[in-house]
Design a protein that fits this description.
Largest sheet: 6 strands, mixed
Number of helices: 19
Radius of gyration: 42 Å
Strand content: 25-35%
Structural class: alpha+beta
Oligomer: single chain
Keywords: Coiled coil, DNA-binding, Isomerase, Topoisomerase
Family: Belongs to the type II topoisomerase GyrA/ParC subunit family.
Protein name: DNA gyrase/topoisomerase IV subunit A
Mean pLDDT: 85
Low-confidence stretches: 1-18, 846-883
Distance between the termini: 119 Å
Catalytic activity: ATP-dependent breakage, passage and rejoining of double-stranded DNA
InterPro entries: Topo_IIA-like_dom_sf, Topo_IIA_A/C_ab, Topo_IIA_A_a_sf, Topo_IIA_dom_A, Type_II_DNA_Topoisomerases
Number of strands: 49
Helix content: 25-40%
C-alpha cells in the first residue's frame, strides 16, 4: 500500500522546486456572483431592514441588549455602552453611536442625559464620551424578559445574544424605521403611541381600526393616499405657517424629514430664483420652532404661504414602503398587518410569560408542601441511623409516601436532595401556620395565573390599557391631519421677469427689451397670443419665441379660466362674409396653432377684445358703399351673442365688405354672480360646490371673517385665502348689517356688550380689549340677536333667575373701537346665545338672467392694474383693439 501512495520526501521536494510553477485559472464571474449574493443577503438581513418580531435592526437590538447587561439603575456613558456593544456587533464604534443617538432622539426606549442633538434644527449630538443613557422605565417594561428570550452565539462565539427581544408593543410602528439595502429599501413612518395602543385593543376586540402617521416634528399631514404604508402610497406633509401681522409670517412646525436649516435654505433659494419675494428671514428656534419670514409691503401673505408650499421645503412628500424581515426573508406588508402581527405576538409572549410564572408558582407550591410534610411529620429523624447517601434518600422517600397523595407531581430525587439541605435552625423555628399561609398565597397566585391564561385576550387588553395609563401622558398626537388642495404654482409664483412683444415680426419673449413691454410674468407662466389672421397660440415663457406675424394681443394665460371671454369679429377669406363670436379658452395644447376663423385663406380679424370678467361691449359696424347696399351702419351688442367654443363659426355680421368697426359703448359683465363654497376639510374657498355655500358674489362683494381673538376683517373671496383655526364667523359681508358681541374685559374684569359695523373694509381691526385676560364670549351677525345671562349663586341667597337680553335694544350701534356698555354688575356663571328675533333683511337686487359661465378661477374677482395692463395691448380702458 505504501508504494501506491504519493508521498513527499526530501528528494521529491527538490524535484518540485526545480520544476516551473503551474498556472491556476480562477473565473471572476462566478466568484463575483457568489460574493455579491452573500453581501446582499448580509446587508438586507443584518444591517438595513428591521425584524417584524421585535421591530429592531441587529445593531439596535445589540445596543439594547448591551444596555441591559450594563444596567444598574444609573446612567452610563454612551462611549462605554458603544464599547460593550462591539462585543456583539462586528462594526465600528461610529455606526453604533449614530444608531444609539437615533434611538435616543425618539424618546421612547432610552432615558437620555446631555446633548443628544436636535431633530428640529439638525444639530448633531455631542461626542459619545460626553453624553449618558440608561434604559427608560417603558423600555424595561416591554422589551426585556430573559426567561422567554431565545439566544444565539455572538459573531465570535464568546457570548450569547438574543435572536429577537421579547418586545410586547408595536415598537416598529411607534418609532418608524428606514434603511437602504442592496436592491431593497424600507421606510416605515412613525405612528402615535396612544393610537397604536387603541388600535391593538380594537384588534383584540375583533374591531376594525385605522392607523396614520404622527411625526415628532409635528406639522400638518395629508394621509389620503397613505395606502396603508405600502409601496405606491404617499404622504404630503406641510409646515404650519400662520400670519403674525400683515408683513410677517411665522413657521411654528416643520415637515417630517426636514430641519429648520434645510427649510430656511430652500426659502432663500426660492427667493434667489424669484419664485417668492421676502425681505428677510429669522430663525428663533430653541425648544420650539419659530422661523419669522418678513415680507415686503404690499405683498399678499396668503399667496406667499401658498408659494412657500409650492416652491420650498415647507411642503414635501414622503413615499412609505413597508418592508420587514420575517423568517430571514424580506416581507412587504402594510402597517395594519404589522400592527396585527405585533399584537398577536404580544399575546403569545404574555402567554409564555404566564406559563413560566405558573410553572414557577407550582414549583414553589410543590416544595413548600414537601417542606411542610418533611418538618411537620419529623421525617428528618428517619435518616439519623442511615450511613449512606442512598440510604438517606430511601428513608426520606419512604417517610414521605403516606403524605404526598395530594401533590400535583411525583417526588424526584432532586426534591429529596433539597430537603436534606434545610438547616436545623429553620427546622427548629418552623411555624406551621406561616407555612400554610405561604401555601395558600401560592395557591391564590396559581389560580390567578390560570385565570389569566383562560382569559388571555382580556389579560392582553388590560396589559395595553396599563401601558396607555402609565406611559401615555404627554404622547398625544402632534401632527395635524388634514386634506390638502394642490397649490397651483402659476397662481402664486412671483412675477419675476418682464414680457415683451414685437408685433410686426411676431416674436414674444423676455429678452426683447428694445420692443414693446406687455406685462410682468414668471418663468413658469404660459403666454397666449392672437394674430391678425385669426390665429391663436399658447407657449411657455422663453427668452424669444415666434408665434406668428401681426400679433394683436398678448397676455399671461390662465389654465381652466372660463371667466375671461374673448370677443371677435373676423372676415372669412379675402372676399367672404364677416362673422362675430364670443368664446373662452380653457384648455389647449402648448405650441399648437389654433385657427379661430372658418379656416379659409386670407381670413382676417376685424375686431378683438379680451374681457377678464366676461364684459360685452356695443360696437358700430360700417360697410363699404358698394353696389345697392342701403344700410351702411348699425350697432351690435356682444351681450346678444352666446358664448360658445373657440372652434365655433360664429354669427353672420354681413355678406358685404366691412369698412371699419368702432367701439360705441364699454361693456359690462354678462356673467351671473359667482356662487362660492367653503370646504372645511381643506379650509379653502371653491366654486366646485364642495362644502357649505357662502353666497353669490359680484365683483366688489367681500367675505366677513371674525376670529376668537376678537378680530374682524373683510376679504375679497379668492381660492388662495388661508383661514385661521380660531375662525368663528365666515359669511358674505353685508356692509349695513351690524355685528353684535359680548366680551370679557380682562383689565376691568367685567362683561361688555357692543354693536358695530365694519367701516374700513381694507383694515383688520380688533374689537375687544387687548388685555391678556380678555376674551370674546359671544359674537352674532344676526339683525336682532338674543342672549341669556346665567348668574352665579351668592352665599345665603337664592340663585337669581336667568335674564334674557335683546342686544339690539340693549345698546345702539357705535364705532368698532368703542368699549360698549357693561352687561351686568352681578357675577355671571355663563352666557348663552338664544334664537334671534325674526327679521326680514333687505333683499339683494337679483342678477339678470344672462348666459352663465361655470367658472373655476376666482382670482380675477377684482382686476388689478397689472392684470388690466396684461389684458390690454393698445387701449388704456382694457376693452378693445381696433383694426
Amino acid at each position: 500500500m505504501a508504494e501506491d501512495n504519493d508521498e513527499l520526501t526530501n528528494d521529491n521536494l527538490e524535484d518540485l522546486n526545480t520544476q516551473e510553477p503551474q498556472e491556476t485559472i480562477t473565473r471572476i464571474t462566478g466568484m463575483y456572483k457568489e460574493w455579491f449574493l452573500d453581501y446582499a443577503s448580509y446587508v438586507i438581513l443584518e444591517r438595513a431592514v428591521p425584524a417584524i418580531e421585535d421591530g429592531f435592526k441587529p445593531v439596535q437590538r445589540r445596543i439594547m441588549h448591551s444596555m441591559k447587561d450594563l444596567d444598574d439603575g444609573r446612567y452610563n456613558k454612551v462611549a462605554n455602552i458603544v464599547g460593550h456593544t462591539m462585543q456583539y456587533h462586528p462594526h465600528g464604534d461610529a455606526s453604533i453611536a449614530d444608531a444609539m443617538v437615533q434611538i435616543g432622539q425618539k424618546d421612547l426606549l432610552i432615558d437620555t442625559q446631555g446633548n443628544w442633538g436636535n431633530i428640529l434644527t439638525g444639530d448633531r449630538a455631542a461626542a459619545a464620551r460626553y453624553i449618558e443613557a440608561r434604559i427608560s422605565k417603558f423600555g424595561m417594561d416591554v422589551v426585556f424578559n430573559p426567561k422567554i428570550t431565545q439566544w444565539q452565539s455572538s459573531y465570535d462565539g464568546r457570548r450569547k445574544e438574543p435572536i429577537n427581544l421579547p418586545v410586547m408593543f408595536p415598537l416598529l410602528l411607534a418609532q418608524g424605521g428606514e434603511g437602504i439595502a442592496v436592491g431593497l429599501s424600507t421606510k416605515i413612518l412613525p405612528h402615535n403611541f396612544i393610537e397604536l395602543i387603541d388600535a391593538s385593543v380594537k384588534h383584540l376586540q375583533g374591531k376594525r381600526f385605522t392607523i396614520l402617521p404622527d411625526f415628532p416634528t409635528a406639522g400638518i399631514a395629508d394621509c389620503s393616499d397613505y395606502n396603508d404604508g405600502l409601496r405606491g402610497g404617499k404622504v404630503h406633509v406641510r409646515a404650519k405657517i400662520s400670519q403674525l401681522d400683515k408683513n410677517t409670517l411665522v413657521i411654528s412646525e416643520i415637515p417630517f424629514g426636514t430641519t429648520t436649516s434645510s427649510l430656511i435654505d430652500s426659502v432663500l433659494k426660492a427667493n434667489d430664483k424669484g419664485k417668492i419675494k421676502i425681505k428677510k428671514i429669522e430663525d428663533n428656534t430653541a425648544a420650539e420652532v419659530e422661523i419669522l419670514i418678513h415680507l415686503p409691503s404690499g405683498l399678499s401673505p396668503d399667496k406667499t404661504i401658498d408659494a412657500l408650499y409650492a416652491f420650498t421645503n415647507c411642503e414635501t412628500s414622503i413615499s412609505p414602503l413597508g418592508c420587514v424581515i420575517e423568517n430571514n426573508k424580506p416581507l412587504f406588508v402594510g402597517v395594519t398587518e404589522m400592527l396585527r402581527r405585533s399584537t398577536d405576538n404580544t399575546v403569545q409572549l404574555l402567554k409564555q410569560e404566564l406559563e413560566i410564572k405558573l410553572g414557577e408558582f407550582e414549583e414553589q407550591w410543590h416544595f413548600a408542601s414537601l417542606e411542610r410534610i418533611f418538618i411537620e411529620n419529623r421525617i428528618y429523624r428517619d435518616i439519623e441511623e442511615e450511613e449512606t447517601w442512598d440510604g438517606v434518600i430511601s428513608a426520606i422517600e419512604k417517610g414521605l409516601q403516606p403524605h404526598i397523595k395530594h401533590l400535583k407531581r411525583a417526588v424526584t430525587v432532586d426534591d429529596i436532595a433539597r430537603l436534606t439541605e434545610i438547616r436545623i435552625k429553620r427546622i427548629s423555628k418552623f411555624d406551621i401556620d406561616k407555612a400554610q399561609q405561604k401555601i395558600d398565597a401560592l395557591e391564590e397566585q396559581i389560580a390567578e395565573v390560570k385565570h389569566h391564561l383562560a382569559h388571555l385576550i382580556e389579560y392582553a387588553i388590560a396589559f395595553f390599557t396599563r401601558l396607555k395609563k402609565e406611559y401615555g401622558a404627554g404622547r398625544e398626537r402632534k401632527t395635524e391631519l388634514r386634506t390638502f388642495e394642490d397649490v397651483d404654482a402659476t397662481k402664486v409664483v412671483i412675477r419675476n421677469t418682464k414680457l415683451y412683444v414685437n408685433k410686426e415680426e411676431g416674436f414674444i419673449g423676455t429678452s426683447l427689451k428694445r420692443d414693446e413691454y406687455v406685462c410682468d410674468c414668471s418663468d413658469i407662466d404660459d403666454i397666449i397670443a392672437f394674430t391678425a389672421d385669426g390665429k391663436m397660440m399658447v407657449s411657455k415663457v422663453d427668452s424669444k419665441t415666434f408665434v406668428g406675424k401681426g400679433i394683436i394681443y398678448v397676455a399671461v394665460f390662465k389654465k381652466k379660466d372660463k371667466r375671461t371671454i374673448y370677443n371677435l369679429v373676423y372676415k372669412d377669406g379675402s372676399k367672404g362674409p364677416s362673422y362675430i363670436k364670443r368664446f373662452a379658452v380653457t384648455s389647449i395644447t402648448r405650441d399648437k396653432e389654433y385657427d379661430l376663423t372658418n379656416g379659409n385663406k386670407s381670413s382676417k380679424a376685424l375686431y378683438f377684445t379680451a374681457n377678464p370678467n366676461g364684459e360685452a361691449e356695443v360696437i358700430t359696424v360700417f360697410l363699404r358703399q358698394v353696389g345697392s347696399v342701403k344700410k351702411l351702419k348699425w350697432d351690435i351688442d356682444f351681450a346678444d351673442i352666446l358664448i360658445k367654443g373657440r372652434a365655433s363659426k360664429g354669427n353672420l355680421v354681413s355678406k358685404h365688405p366691412v369698412k371699419k368697426i368702432e367701439l360705441k359703448e364699454k361693456g359690462v359683465s354678462t356673467l351671473k354672480p359667482r356662487k362660492i363654497w367653503y370646504d372645511d376639510t381643506v379650509q379653502r374657498l371653491n366654486v366646485d360646490e364642495r362644502g357649505e355655500l357662502v353666497g353669490e358674489f359680484r365683483g366688489e362683494d367681500r367675505i366677513l371673517v371674525i376670529t376668537q381673538k376678537g378680530i374682524a376683517k373683510t376679504i375679497i373671496p379668492e381660492v388662495t385665502t388661508h383661514f385661521d383655526n380660531d375662525m368663528l364667523v365666515m359669511e358674505k359681508w353685508v356692509p349695513k348689517k351690524p355685528i353684535s358681541a359680548i366680551y370679557f374685559d380682562g383689565e376691568k374684569e367685567m362683561y361688555y356688550v357692543k354693536r358695530f359695523i365694519i367701516e374700513n373694509e381694507n383694515r383688520e381691526e380688533q374689537f375687544i380689549s387687548n388685555h391678556p385676560n380678555s376674551f370674546l364670549e359671544i359674537v352674532s351677525t344676526d339683525w336682532k340677536p338674543m342672549a341669556e345671562i346665567e348668574f352665579k349663586k351668592e352665599r345665603g341667597k337664592d340663585r337669581k333667575e336667568n335674564e334674557p337680553i335683546n342686544l339690539e335694544e340693549f345698546i345702539s350701534i357705535k364705532g368698532i373701537a368703542a368699549q360698549g356698555n357693561q352687561l351686568t354688575k352681578d357675577r355671571v356663571n355663563a352666557i348663552h346665545i338664544m334664537e334671534s328675533i325674526p327679521y326680514e333683511a333687505p333683499e339683494e337686487i337679483p342678477a339678470e338672467d344672462l348666459e352663465v359661465i361655470e367658472e373655476e378661477d376666482m382670482s380675477v374677482s377684482k382686476t388689478t392694474d397689472d392684470e388690466t395692463k396684461a389684458s390690454n395691448s393698445e387701449d388704456d380702458n382694457g376693452q378693445s383693439t381696433l383694426f
